[in-house]
Amino acid sequence: MRTSWAAGALTAMLAIAGAACSDDGGVTGGNTTDDSTDESTDEPSDDSINAWVATLCTSLDDWITNLELATEDVQDVLNLQGEAGGGDTGTDTGTDTGNTGSTDVDLDEQVELLADFLDTSVELTETLIDELEDAGVPDTEDGEEIAEVFLAGFNDARDIFAEAREQVDDVPTDDPEDFEEAVLEIGDEIDIAAIEIQTAFNEAGDDFDTTDLDEAYEEEEACEALQ
After folding, report:
1. How far apart are CA 8 and CA 4, in angstroms?
2. Cβ pair 77, 84 in contact under 8 A
3. Which helix (H) or strand (E) holds 135?
4. Largest Cα span, the chain
């Protein structure tokens, strides 16, 4: 059975962040070929590049941490694993999304929690976007294009959360099975959209020279939590 929708949404969003920061195909990784024919005479500043990467990593780490906290808050009550049905709340905490019938669960309250979670997710992602915009463009080859990929990817992530938030208003609360079906459908749509964004990050990693950013990413202490 499916894990809870909130956990699935977080996993999808962290996949986006992971693709953005990966060293095997994301925007800050993957293209490590030695271009010995580079004729550029203007070497980018290592300090400038490292500062940009450190800002990026700090912002992403804050976003991930706060998103995880928001997910923990909603999972305490939003538990589609059947826990609210009473009885056994023991060993299985993560995989069974059934048994939502014959419970005392307040589905209206769960919808409200979902809405709060998504509102928070939108706000957190908008903060991340603002910080990425403030960081500007890395002083490296293809820097402008790389910065645009990050902004576009997380603008899309923000839109995913916002669209899911709108759909939550239409989730039925008069029948547990209909509720679960609607919630999981929203989760599936988030998964699909997240995969599309992750693919865009991966393709950008193939298209642009990210060697300088890769090196800074490996060096910066602020990036350790993302590696």
Report:
1. 6
2. no
3. helix 107-135
4. 72
